[in-house]
Write a structure and sequence with these properties.
This is Leucine-rich repeat-containing protein 32-like. The protein is about 25% helix and about 15% strand. The chain is flat, with a radius of gyration of 39 Å. The chain starts with a helix and ends with a helix. The strands form 8 sheets. The protein has a 21-stranded parallel β-sheet, with no helix packed on it. It has a two-stranded parallel sheet with strand order 3-5. Among the domains are: about 1-95, Ribonuclease Inhibitor (Leucine-rich repeat, LRR (right-handed beta-alpha superhelix), Alpha-Beta Horseshoe), CATH 3.80.10; about 125-205, Leucine-rich repeat, LRR (right-handed beta-alpha superhelix) (Alpha-Beta Horseshoe), CATH 3.80.10; about 495-605, Ribonuclease Inhibitor (Leucine-rich repeat, LRR (right-handed beta-alpha superhelix), Alpha-Beta Horseshoe), CATH 3.80.10.10; about 610-645. α9 runs parallel beside α10 (about 570-575). By secondary structure, the protein is an alpha/beta fold. It contains 13 helices and 35 strands. The structure holds 2-acetamido-2-deoxy-beta-D-glucopyranose (NAG) (9 copies). One 2-acetamido-2-deoxy-beta-D-glucopyranose (NAG) binds next to β7.
Length: about 650
């Protein structure tokens, strides 16, 4: 009986032990990292069950046979590998991802390429930074029918031939940044029917005469020397969504495929607009197109007709050479939401849209989806009111570093037509027409006068008026937007407290008044301020009841660079108690008599710094006490004396 029980217990024990063991076997190390361990060789006693092995950042020079039948990922990047023996990968039956970047694989091509050719099931290969020539790259890419991803950045490739990828036709993503590629033979990428992403940035490609890769979704040609980009018109549907042609030498807009899905077009830092105004530029690129396509007669505006079909939402044209805004071309892009036109040389936006007929005076065209427009640093002094009318959906308007003067609000003007007539020649900009506008940046425009109701009828949420050192701000300048405004920046406007009066703004949470000459905060307590910056002003103290009034929401306050009086700093104690963050507290000083005191230090022992202040007060009351005592004694003495006198006189009367 006991024996039977004992055997049962044993059975139970062994069962649970078994479960325990099995649990353990699931926990074996699938992954091992030897990153940066000063290894000169691959370690000998590796666990055969490993799935991932990281040997990067060591000094390994040779790779011989490794037996890791379950290994899927091997990282040998940043070693000094120059020899891989032919059979090195033979016993890595599961290997799918191999990182060999930053080695010296341009050596021992015979043996290395045989080794690499033996792993046909590889899905991802990184052979960047190995000094590879065109020929060695081709050798390493043989027998790679399963390869999806290939990285070959920073090698010495110059010419891509149609035989390069002939045994790796399953590629989906190729990155060949930072080589010396100047020639791409026809048929190099065309047969790669799965190819979606191609990055050729930082090479020497000079022109794309006929873009035929309709399977691509992403093409990066940034930082080459591309002068023009042209696609032959056909009825194929191109899948391209992102095209980066930034930092090139484009003189003309690219002629994109007729049927495309382009959403993001990066054209910043080119030479667009350098030669001609819009009309000439358009006809020249059409001429060029027909010349490249060997068509004799130029009849069609291919640029415009193809751009009209483009579902573009984002375009970056910053840092080009535009002297006029390409109104007609850009208005073809009816889905365009974001346009970065900063750092060009516009100076003015004139409505030079060609009329359809002689009778038509100013033809109004629109940018029907444009929400975010960046015109920073264009030297703009004039913007046609018809241009403002065209911005029917504008949300964010960046006009930083121009010379724009906001117009006064003219109440009697209701229809846009009369606004046109009034302002057509005037040099001010009537923001009141932009009813959807939420974010406006007018920093550094040398604004002279901000008139009453300057932004009325907009929906402004944030307004930046910084760096307008000569700006006179009307008391009612913000009327009409004081209910909606959440962020206001008026730093570096050289204003004193008497120059500045702010209305009650019940939505304002961020206020930046730094770098002025304010000696009091001109804000009424009615804003739920969360962040306030009053750095570098002339504040001596802050109104404690104001601080208490805004304390409910206040999180952060910047205060350094003022003339605070140490002994009048109840506000500081209040802020400290309310746990408001004062990030620049350690750089803040206050004045006590003639000496400056570090405010952090002051807060720790405030009583000792204002001792003189307190002492004089104590002295004062002590003196008062003596005087009162003195008067009391004299009075008592007098009373006693007179009474005595009276008493001695009575017998005389009786
Ligand atoms: C290969 O390793 C390098 C770092 O050594 C890393 O930057 C790169 O992204 C890796 N390649 C892949 C495809 O993960
Ligand atoms: C190509 O790869 C397959 C699968 O990995 C392999 O069996 C074959 O030997 C390789 N061919 C050459 C020529 O190395
Ligand atoms: C294109 O490549 C450049 C250079 O690596 C990179 O800076 C840029 O972000 C890429 N463009 C896009 C749209 O991804
Ligand atoms: C617009 O372009 C400028 C200059 O290239 C750049 O600094 C800025 O970040 C861009 N702005 C947006 C919103 O993309
Ligand atoms: C309006 O502008 C045109 C062209 O710039 C100029 O010739 C004309 O004198 C201006 N009219 C007024 C009233 O400023
Ligand atoms: C306030 O504006 C100044 C520029 O005058 C800037 O340096 C500072 O970072 C801004 N403060 C905050 C909190 O953003
Ligand atoms: C600010 O205003 C004062 C007094 O009007 C003037 O002396 C000073 O030059 C102004 N500073 C700037 C940067 O314009
Ligand atoms: C202090 O602020 C309160 C409320 O914000 C205001 O009523 C009072 O006039 C201010 N006192 C001074 C001296 O500015
Ligand atoms: C003020 O004191 C704090 C803490 O002792 C210190 O970190 C900070 O550097 C000092 N600031 C100045 C301007 O001396």
């Amino acid at each position: 009986m006991v024996r039977h029980m004992f055997s049962n217990v044993l059975l139970l024990w062994s069962l649970s032990y078994d479960i325990y063991i099995t649990g353990l076997t699931f926990d074996y190390p699938k992954e091992q990292s030897w990153n940066n361990q000063n290894l000169y060789f691959v370690p000998q006693d590796l666990d055969v069950r490993l799935r991932r092995l990281d040997l990067s950042n060591n000094f390994i020079r040779q790779l011989h046979t490794v037996v890791l039948p379950y290994l899927q990922q091997l990282d040998l990047s940043s070693n000094q590998l120059d020899l891989i023996s032919e059979g090195a990968f033979e016993n890595l039956a599961q290997l799918e991802e191999l990182n060999l970047s930053r080695n010296a694989l341009d050596n021992n091509l015979g043996s290395n390429s045989k080794a690499l050719q033996s792993i046909g099931r590889l899905k991802s290969l990184d052979i960047s930074m190995n000094g590879l020539s065109d020929y060695s790259a081709e050798m390493y890419l043989r027998n790679k029918s399963s390869l999806n991803q290939l990285k070959m950045t920073g090698n010495a490739l110059t010419r891509l031939s149609h035989s390069l990828f002939k045994e790796s036709k399953g590629l989906r993503a190729i990155t060949m940044e930072n080589n010396l590629i100047s020639v791409i033979e026809e048929g190099t990428f065309e047969p790669l029917s799965q190819l979606e992403m191609l990055n050729l940035a930082k090479n020497n490609i000079a022109q794309i005469c006929d873009f035929t890769l309709h399977q691509l979704k992403y093409l990066n040609l940034s930082r080459n020397s591309v002068e023009f980009f042209v696609s032959r018109e056909n009825d194929l549907l191109y899948r391209l969504e992102v095209l980066d042609l930034s930092f090139n030498k484009l003189l003309y807009f690219p002629i994109v495929p007729k049927m495309n899905q382009l959403k993001y077009l990066h054209l910043q830092n080119n030479m667009l607009g350098a030669l001609h105004l819009e009309a000439a530029m358009v006809s020249e690129v059409n001429y060029l197109y027909h010349e490249i396509m060997n068509e004799k007669i130029v009849t069609k505006n291919t640029l415009h007709s193809n751009w009209r079909l483009m579902p573009l939402v984002y375009m970056d044209l910053s840092n080009n050479h535009f002297r006029s805004f390409p109104l007609e071309t850009l208005s073809r892009l009816t889905f365009l939401e974001t346009l970065n036109f900063s750092y060009n040389c516009l100076q003015s936006i004139i409505w030079n849209v060609r009329p359809y007929s002689d009778r038509e005076y100013h033809r109004q065209i629109f940018f029907p989806s444009l929400k975010h427009l960046n015109l920073q640093s264009n030297g703009l002094a004039y913007i046609s009111p018809l241009f403002l009318n065209a911005l029917t959906q504008i949300d964010t308007f960046n006009l930083q570093d121009n010379s724009v003067q906001p117009c006064a609000h003219t109440d009697h003007l209701r229809s846009s037509e009369s606004t046109q007539q009034i302002h057509l020649n005037g040099s001010c900009v009537a923001f009141q027409t932009l009813s959807t506008l939420k974010h406006l940046n007018l920093e550094g425009n040398n604004i002279k006068m901000l008139n009453a109701n300057a932004f009325q009828e907009t929906s402004l949420v944030s307004l930046n008026l910084a760096r307008n050192a000569h700006m006179v701000m009307h008391v009612s300048a913000l009327d009409g937007v004081q209910e909606t405004l959440q962020s206001l920046i008026i730093s570096e406007t050289n204003m004193t407290s008497s120059d500045l009066s702010l209305p009650c703004m019940p939505a304002l949470t961020h206020l930046n008044m730094s770098n002025n000459r304010l000696d009091s905060i001109p804000s009424s307590g009615c804003s739920p301020l969360r962040e306030i910056d009053i750095r570098n002003n002339r504040l001596v103290s802050l109104n404690n009841s104001f601080i208490s009034a805004i304390s409910a929401h206040l999180r952060v306050m910047f205060i350094s660079g003022n003339d605070f009086n140490c002994c009048d700093s109840k506000w500081l104690t209040t802020l400290d108690e309310l746990k408001v963050k004062l990030p620049d507290m350690s750089g803040t000083e206050c004045f006590s008599g003639d000496s400056r005191v570090n405010m952090t230090v002051y807060l720790r022992s405030s009583s000792s710094y204002c001792l003189f202040h307190n002492k004089s007060q104590a002295l004062h009351s002590w003196q008062m006490f003596i005087v009162v005592l003195f008067v009391f004694v004299i009075l008592t003495f007098l009373i006693i004396f007179t009474r005595k006198l009276c008493c001695t006189q009575i017998p005389f009367v009786v």
